[in-house]
Specification:
seven-stranded mixed sheet; Aspartate Aminotransferase, domain 1; Aspartate Aminotransferase, domain 2; 9 helices; 34% helix; three-stranded antiparallel sheet; binds pyridoxal-5'-phosphate; 16% strand
Length: 360
C-alpha cells in the first residue's frame, strides 16, 4: 500500500491515524458486539458517540452555551436554503457579500425565499480579492448579512470576522472551519459541510444562536428547521451515523494535535511555505490578492499554461495528486487542509522547484 499526498478540495484528505482507528473499530466498536454502522441512532452507544462529538466541537471552537450545535444532512447547499428559511423572521430582505462561486450559489438559493441585497461584490476584480469593508453597503432592513469565510475555488479567505454593523452575521465556513480560531460570539450562525476540513461528506455542522430559532418560515421542510432539529438532538430523522462518528474521530484528533491554536500555527507555516515558493518564482504565480489569500486552498498558475498537463502527470508520479484547479476556473490548486501534513507541503514545494528546473 502506498498512500499519496491528496490535495483535493473535497472530499479531501483524512488524518491517517483516524483512518487507522476507524479500520480497527470497523467490525466491532469498543466491545459493543457490533459496528458503528449497525447501531441504532437512539441506542446509548451511538448517543454517546454523538454527544462526545458535540462536546469536542464545543471545546475546540469555544462555542458559548447559548448556541445550538446541529449535525445535519444535505450539505452546505442544503444550508443555503436553510439560512433564509430560518433567519428571515418576518423580514423579506437579506444581505450577502459576493466573493466568488460559493457566495453566488448561496445568493441564488436565498433568492427563492427573499430579496437579496448584495452588500459588495468582487466580480469586477475577477474574484481575486475581498471588497474592503469600507465599501460595503449594508441594508439596515436585511434580516442578516451572509459571507463566505473561505472561497474554496477562488482561494480568498477573510482574515477576520467582518463588522456587520449590527446585522446578524452568518458564515459559510465549509472550507475553513476548525483551521483557525474564531469568535463564535460575533456570529448569529455558521454552517459547514464536513467534507473539506472536518470529516466525511454527508454531514453538515450548523452552529446557531438559540434566540434566533423558532421563527422558521412555515414552508420550511422539517429537516431544515433548525429549531425542530435542535429540539430533537439532530435526530428528527435517522442521522448519518457513521459520518457523525468519523467526524467525532477527526475532532478527537484535532484535540490531540493541541487544539485550534496549534493547528492554526501549523496552517500558517504550511501556507507561508507554499505561497513563498510560488511568489519566489516567475514560473509560478498566484492570482489572489496577498492580503486575503486562503490558508486552505491555494490556486496557482504556470507562466506557460500549456505545461499544466505535464505538471499534473509528473506531480502524480511524485505522489502529489488532485492538484488541478476547479473545472470552472482552470489552472492549478493545492488544498492544504488540517489533515495534510506539513511534509506534504514540503514535498510539493520541492516538486515545484524540480519541475521548474526541468521545464522553466
Ligand atoms: C463545498 C462548499 C459548499 C458546498 O458544499 P456541499 O456540502 O457540497 O453542499 C458550499 N460552500 C463552500 C465554501 C464550499 O467549499
Amino acid at each position: 500500500m502506498s498512500r499519496v499526498y491528496n490535495f483535493a478540495a473535497g472530499p479531501s484528505i483524512f488524518p491517517e491515524p483516524v483512518l487507522e482507528q476507524a479500520r480497527d473499530e470497523l467490525l466491532e466498536w469498543h466491545g459493543a458486539g457490533v459496528s458503528v454502522l449497525e447501531m441504532s441512532h437512539r441506542g446509548k452507544d451511538f448517543v454517546g458517540i454523538a454527544e462526545k462529538a458535540e462536546a469536542d466541537l464545543r471545546e475546540l471552537l469555544a462555542i458559548p452555551t447559548d448556541y445550538k450545535v446541529l449535525f445535519l444532512q444535505g450539505g452546505a447547499t442544503g444550508q443555503f436554503a436553510a439560512v433564509p428559511l430560518n433567519l428571515l423572521r418576518g423580514k423579506n430582505k437579506v444581505a450577502y457579500v459576493d466573493t466568488g462561486i460559493w457566495s453566488q450559489k448561496a445568493i441564488a438559493e436565498a433568492k427563492r425565499y427573499a430579496e437579496v441585497a448584495v452588500a459588495a461584490s468582487a466580480k469586477s476584480q475577477n474574484y481575486s480579492t475581498i471588497p474592503p469593508r469600507g465599501e460595503w453597503v449594508l441594508d439596515p432592513e436585511a434580516a442578516y448579512l451572509h459571507y463566505t469565510a473561505n472561497e474554496t475555488i477562488g482561494g480568498v479567505e477573510y482574515q477576520d470576522i467582518p463588522d456587520s454593523n449590527g446585522l446578524p452575521l452568518v458564515a459559510d465556513a465549509s472550507s475553513n472551519i476548525l483551521s483557525r480560531s474564531l469568535d463564535i460570539n460575533r456570529l448569529a450562525a455558521l454552517y459547514a459541510g464536513a467534507q473539506k476540513n472536518a470529516g466525511p461528506a454527508g454531514i453538515t455542522i450548523v452552529i446557531a444562536r438559540e434566540d434566533l430559532l423558532g421563527q422558521a418560515l412555515p414552508i420550511t421542510p422539517s429537516i431544515l428547521d433548525w429549531k425542530l432539529q435542535a429540539d430533537n438532538g439532530s435526530m428528527l430523522n435517522t442521522p448519518p451515523t457513521y459520518n457523525w462518528y468519523l467526524l467525532g474521530l477527526v475532532l478527537e484528533w484535532l484535540k490531540e494535535q493541541g487544539g485550534l491554536a496549534a493547528i492554526e500555527a501549523r496552517n500558517i507555516r504550511k501556507a507561508e511555505k507554499l505561497y513563498g515558493a510560488i511568489d519566489a518564482s516567475a514560473f509560478y504565480s498566484s492570482p489572489v490578492d496577498p492580503a486575503v489569500r486562503s490558508r486552505m486552498n491555494v490556486p496557482f498558475r504556470l507562466a506557460n499554461a500549456d505545461l499544466e498537463k505535464v505538471f499534473l502527470q509528473e506531480a502524480r508520479a511524485a505522489g502529489l495528486v488532485n492538484l488541478e484547479g476547479h473545472r470552472s476556473v482552470g489552472g492549478l490548486r493545492a488544498s492544504i487542509y488540517n489533515a495534510l501534513p506539513e511534509a506534504g507541503v514540503d514535498a510539493l514545494v520541492t516538486f515545484l522547484a524540480e519541475f521548474e528546473a526541468q521545464h522553466g
